[in-house]
Amino acid sequence: MVKRPATRKPVPKAQPARAPALEWGAAGVGLLLILAVLTLLAMHALSPNGPPILRVTQIDQTTNPAGHTIKIEVVNDGATAAAGVLVEGALGSETSEVSLDYVPAKSKREASLVFQGDPKAGALTLRVKGFVEP
What we know:
Layout: H1 21-46, E1 54-64, E2 67-76, E3 82-91, E4 94-103, E5 107-115, E6 124-132
């Protein structure tokens, strides 16, 4: 008699374990966060960076024993911040100055100028004398 080789049963291949739905959800959230950060960085890098665009307007006026106080608003419409902003107000031959430490891009800051003369009696002129780009 001829011996036949013993037949072996085929060993089933191990199937890879499937990741649970929670794991897929966490991976999806992580992917969305990474894409959001990359999008913000790209937008910031591609946005125009022009100089600060500063304008000064009078918003209020009060009279007190020290003189006439003019409340002003400095608005930066530019895409870059301005530091050390120097604002001058002139009323005839009288001038008053105020310095603002920092005016961020697309924002506004308030300050006050004091005059001895009455601003209603003359033409008050307001202007930005200078600033530094930080």
